[in-house]
Amino acid sequence: MRHGGDRNRFPVRGRGRAPMWTVITAAVLALAWMPSGSAAPAEPAESPRDAAARDRGVRPGAVQARIVGGTRTSTDQAPWMVALTDEFGSQFCGGTLVRPTKVVTAAHCTTEPGSTRPRSPEALRAVLGRTDLRTGQGVVAGVEKVWRPRAYSGFLQGADVAVLTLSAPVPQQPLPMVGAGDTEPYRTGTPGRIYGWGRTGEWAPPSKVLRSVEVPVLADAECAEPYENFDGSTMFCAGEAEVGQDACGGDSGGPFVVDGRLVGVISFGSGCARPGFPGVYTRLSAYAAEMAQHL
């Protein structure tokens, strides 16, 4: 049994990428990844958790992340998938097209790294129809406006969702969103699919090609134990750590899709696919009514 003193023993990290490491609180770090093309930091010595995993017959590498344990997919199969980039074209988060001019992402993807200070909308770009980020395929839309819930004060406190208003409609097919108060998609064991261009391992570079993996919704207790701020009314957790399936750095803001509907947003986690530390997602049904005014 894990005791309370072990909670958040590993850094709790948002799953976007940013230029530098930034302290969120004295005890908790948010993961701010270096831009694409930068050298990854040196891998540390085997942690006690990796050693324990190895002793159980799980390779330490298997509990590192990929969009994690996933496979390549394409924007033909997920036309609503958005790569969120800065004005220089560096991808750092994901998002989901829900209307021709509206993208849902994580609130922490719309703030300066390591703070709640808003990024300028003019510094954001939404890229659609680009399976491989090394190409010039698809469309690039500017962002006119960003909405975040008033309650947002950092991803660990919840309300980690934002709506981007694009400067012009895009032709891609939007994804329907879950309704307010809907509980069915969040039942334990429900399979959902996540997408992203995030890192292919905890210490690996990001993927240049869109990836996807199916992960099950987990019981709230599996998140409440390792994450003391977990709130099951506004969050849910999912993942398959033992087989190395999870989201990772650069996947923040991306979708959790159940039965053809957007039901969650990739938010944060401690490392990637670590046993006992599942990925945490924003429960969109808790914010759907508030979001409707901005869609």
UniProtKB/TrEMBL annotation:
Could you list this entry's UniProt keywords, alphabetically sorted.
Answer: Disulfide bond, Hydrolase, Protease, Serine protease
Biased composition range(s): Basic and acidic residues: 46-58
PROSITE patterns reported for this sequence: TRYPSIN_DOM, TRYPSIN_HIS, TRYPSIN_SER
* This protein's record includes keyword Hydrolase: yes
Question: Which molecular function terms from Gene Ontology are attached?
Answer: serine-type endopeptidase activity
> Which lineage?
Bacteria, Bacillati, Actinomycetota, Actinomycetes, Actinomycetes incertae sedis
Any idea where the Peptidase S1 domain is? 67-295
GO terms, biological process: proteolysis
Stated name of the protein? Trypsin
> Which superkingdom heads the taxonomic lineage of this protein's source?
Bacteria
One Pfam entry for this protein is Trypsin
SMART domains for this protein: Tryp_SPc (SM00020)
- Alphabetical list of CDD domains matching this protein: Tryp_SPc (cd00190)
What's the family? Belongs to the peptidase S1 family.
Region Disordered, as annotated, extends over 38-61
Q: Which organism is it from?
A: Halopolyspora algeriensis
* InterPro entries referenced in this protein's UniProt entry, alphabetically: Peptidase_S1 (IPR050430), Peptidase_S1_PA (IPR009003), Peptidase_S1_PA_chymotrypsin (IPR043504), Peptidase_S1A (IPR001314), Trypsin_dom (IPR001254), TRYPSIN_HIS (IPR018114), TRYPSIN_SER (IPR033116)
Presence of the UniProt keyword Protease in the record: yes
Q: What Gene3D superfamilies would the database entry show? A: Trypsin-like serine proteases (2.40.10.10)
